[in-house]
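Troubleshooting: if your tokenizer reports a length mismatch, compare your output against this known-good record of 246 residues.
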Amino acid sequence: MVRVLFSGRRLIATLLIILGAGVFCWLGFWQLDRHYQRAALNQRIAAGLAQPPAPLNTAGDLATLDYRPVTIRGVFDPAHEILLRNRSLNGITGYHIITPLRLSDGSGAAVLIDRGWIPLTESTPDARRKLAPAPGEVVVAGIARQPEVYLGGPKDPPPGPERPRLDAWFRVDVARIQKQVPYPLLPIFIETQPVPGAPPALPQPVPPPELDAGPHLGYALQWFAFAIILVAGYGAIQYRSLPPPS
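Known-good structure output:
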């Protein structure tokens, strides 16, 4: 049977089946890898969120902070506020408002605060002025996050003479946002969180992502099943086409 599959007119078809099964298996292992990455991320998020809120130590290793509850004191600067594009809440598309908080520690630095979601209708400058944060010194509690880097999808346009400032961004790329802010920014940003029992108000803080396993394991099993079906089906068809033994 094996010799027949790799000889004559069946050779090309057999090689194509092997190639197709190999591609299906590669896609299955790729989805398995994504499943393990998702599990590792969920574990990291759960471990960070399980820690009690602590004052942000700006002199510490900020690169290790991700999904860590923190508090920080400072004064909001709405003049350098930006929007984060393509953010939805309960199926409604809108923006997140990102406002710098100038720190009260005397360093002159600031940290970007994701104050939450607003609908598209509230994104104009006049509407956002009505949503301005409280003036004066405040204590902000939230979750420290690492900057968002470009991993595909739409790109934020580069600054230039014709575009010295970008008001709406696709991601919180702190290094690039720094180019349009006149004071140093910490290399992290902070997401405010919903307050239990508080009435809904804009901007509306968004809770952390759901820690589910996602669909990747199911996709992996599907691709492996496709590979088995392809090989087994081809083998069955070729077996039935063989002449009966004499």
